[in-house]
Amino acid sequence: xxxxxxxxxxxxxxxxxxxxxxxxxxxxxxxxxxxxxxxxxxxxxxxxxxxxxxxxxxxxxxxxxxxxxxxxxxxxxxxxxxxxxxxxxxxxxxxxxxxxxxxxxxxxxxxxxxxxxxxxxxxxxxxxxxxxxxxxxxxxxxxxxxxxxxxxx
Length: 153
Prior knowledge:
Layout: E1 6-10, E2 14-19, E3 24-28, H1 36-54, E4 58-62, H2 71-87, E5 92-95, H3 97-105, H4 112-121, H5 129-144
Helix pairs in contact: 1-2, 3-5, 4-5
């Protein structure tokens, strides 16, 4: 893995996250989801803690899918991610969902099980689609920097 440490995010009320050469996982904000203000504060505090702990040089984000009732929340969380990363002086890169799916599966309309299968085929032990998407975002960001990605262990 190259020298760039990246924190990758699949933003939703259950956030998938992955760090270059390090851990990956999910963080649920389901409890806060009914109150948009509480959701935003909880997400920002969590993300700030992740940045302080993992010290990435870049935050990579899957852009929100722009359809349906959750669009409002996803756009707000995406804005919050950009704000927190900017506060910490970090550059950000966004990948549109279709581009990410095409990158991972060669199909821009791939469904969640196909994304999980693609990430598993890369050697990652994941079963949650949010975590799989975050690992795909991480791989996409490293590929854009000309760096390979290897299983996180």
